[in-house]
Structure formats: C-alpha cells, structure tokens
Design goal:
There is one protein chain. By secondary structure, this protein is of the alpha/beta class. 29% of the residues lie in helices and 27% in strands. It contains nine helices and 16 strands. A six-stranded mixed beta sheet has the order 1-2-3-5-4-15, covered by helices on one side.
C-alpha cells in the first residue's frame, strides 16, 4: 500500500498482485510519500486482475478500480500507462464538476528566473493541447532545461480559484519522451522504456518541488506555425483553442478508442459516471475555459526535432513578455 500525492490530493493505492507488470515499483517511484499516513488519503485506487480489462469509478465512495487482463500479453510500459491514465482520469471523475478541480491534457514547468527575480514565485508555464499537432512534452522539457523545472507531463491537474489558476504539483510522475527527441533533450539518460522518472531525468533536468504554483502563461504547440515564431492568442479565441486540453481526458474515458495507448477495446469496459466536462459546450467545460482565458496565451511554432532550439527561444521571448 502506498499513498500518491496529486498536489494537495492524496490517493491510497493498492494492488492484488504487487509484482504484476512492475506495478509495485511504479507506484513506489511516483509516490515519494512514505511518511504520509494512509488514513489521510481521500481517494482509493485499486489495481486488480481479471479475465478482461475494465475500469470502475464510484464517486460516492471515492473508489477507483482498474482490472488488468490476466491472459492478455502486454508490455510493462502499456500496463503502467494504463495505471497512470486510470488513476488520473479516475480522480478527476471522482471530484466531478463542483470541486474546482480540472484535469487538462498538457504539461507544465515551474519557472526559475534566478535570485534577482523581484516577483517572488515566478509561477508555472503550461504547454497545452490546442489540437494543432504534437510537441507538448518536447517544448516543456526544452524550456525546463533552459529556464525551469519539470512539474508534470500529460496529466496536468489545475485548481480554479476566483483570482487565479493553480497547477497541482506532480513532479515524481513519469514523462513520456519520444525516441526521436531523446538525443536532443536527454542524451545522458540511460533508462530504458517509454516512461522516464524524476531520478532518470536528473542528469539533464531540474525537478520541481512538490508545491502547487500559479499558472502565469499558456503555450500551445502549433505545427502549422514556423519554428521560432510565436503568436499571442486573443482572449476571444482562447476558449476555442483550448477546448481539446479541457475535454480530452474525459472524452477518452467515454471512448477509449481515442487513446493512442489503451488496454480497453470498447467503451463498455469503462464504468464512469457521465462527465459534463467531456462536452465542449457543457457548463463545467465553460467554467474551466473561462478561467484559462484569463491567463495570457501564445501559439508556438513547432517543427522537426532539430528545430526545437528555435521553438524554445521563441517561447522564452513570450515568457519574458509576461513574467517581468
């Protein structure tokens, strides 16, 4: 039994077979929380085995159960990605529309602007899905190497407040870096497998502290824009641009076929209450989009792997415009 921290949220994790597909080691690496009493955990996530894969989320009991198929051959990476998806999306579904919590499809880094920065906490930059192509993880890691610390990949939880959006700290969750980007971003990393953890990445990156931070800037990778270019997003356009970031994870719960990697064959294997946020026009999605629209946003041109330095340099100019 381990307790995994999602910012201020605590998730108690158990498994029928702790050795199954390296799940025990995986949970140990992402928890980094052996001193947290299990009694403080507000959610329960259980990994079981069954004849077929299925996921059940029960909000009243705050319980999430993922069953991995016993007789189906799958790689360790595939099983661990399934655990990560189920835990993050399950926690989001447990909390529902009225909690002020939202799960975004994107990455984040905390800014490290040096001791002379007069504004105190420099805050967080989120690199979010705008439906304009891939590049979120690469741009985030490139920026972290230049001016920040890695905070979260793929599953960016935010908490909405009246005057700001705060990104929940999950620095010990793994990063999924494409093979073609490793020589450009993490040449000293020797770990094998698709998922890279904080300890794997430390030769090349600084890791953020386990502390939530205010969202100061949103960047959206745009493969239709030349590398080295940034374009500010008008406030009136932010809501349309960020709909994929707000609805993606809930839509993939409703239809697992939308996932690039999934252990589920049909929606019938996922038992989750209807999530209002899965619809772009829903009240919950509008509330999240309204909050994000108050944060400055830029589109950033993304090209081939070798173009990443130009994209990072352009993004740093955008950061300098917003974070004095």
């Amino acid at each position: 039994m381990r307790t995994v921290r999602l910012g201020g949220l605590l998730v108690q994790v158990t498994a029928d077979r702790p050795d199954h597909c390296q799940i025990h080691d995986f949970v140990t690496r992402i928890s980094q929380s052996h001193r947290i009493p299990h009694t403080r955990a507000g959610q329960r996530f259980h990994v079981a085995t069954d004849r077929a894969a299925h996921l059940t989320v029960d909000p009243p009991s705050r319980a999430i159960t993922l069953a991995l198929p016993e007789m189906v051959a799958m790689s360790a990476d595939q099983a661990l990605i399934a655990v990560l998806q189920a835990m993050a999306r399950g926690v989001s579904a447990v909390h529902g529309a009225d909690s002020g919590l939202a799960l975004l499809h994107g990455c984040a880094l905390t800014l490290d602007l040096g001791a002379d920065h007069s504004g105190g906490d420099a805050g967080t930059v989120a690199v979010l899905d705008g439906g304009l192509g891939q590049g979120k993880t690469s741009l985030t890691m490139g920026l972290a190497a230049a001016c920040g610390r890695l905070l979260v990949d793929e599953f960016a939880f935010v908490r909405l407040a009246s005057d700001e959006v705060r990104v929940l700290a999950t620095p010990y969750w793994p990063w999924h870096l494409r093979d073609d980007m490793r020589p450009h971003l993490a040449p000293e990393v020797r770990a094998e497998g698709a998922l890279l953890f904080a300890d794997d990445l430390r030769p090349c990156f600084s890791i953020a502290e386990c502390r939530d931070a205010a969202l100061r800037l949103i960047l959206v990778p745009d493969q239709g824009l030349a590398p080295g270019r940034t374009v500010p997003v008008a406030v009136a356009s932010v809501r349309d641009l960020l709909r994929p970031a707000v609805t993606d994870h809930a839509r993939k719960l409703a239809d697992p076929g939308l996932d690039h990697v999934s252990i589920f064959d049909t929606p019938a294997q996922v038992h989750v209450p209807d999530q209002d946020v899965s619809s772009a026009g829903s009240a919950e999605a509008r509330r999240v989009l309204d909050a994000l629209a108050r944060v400055p946003a830029f589109r950033v041109g993304i090209g081939a792997p070798g173009d990443l330095p130009a994209s990072v340099a352009a993004a740093r100019h955008a950061i300098a415009e917003v974070v004095a």
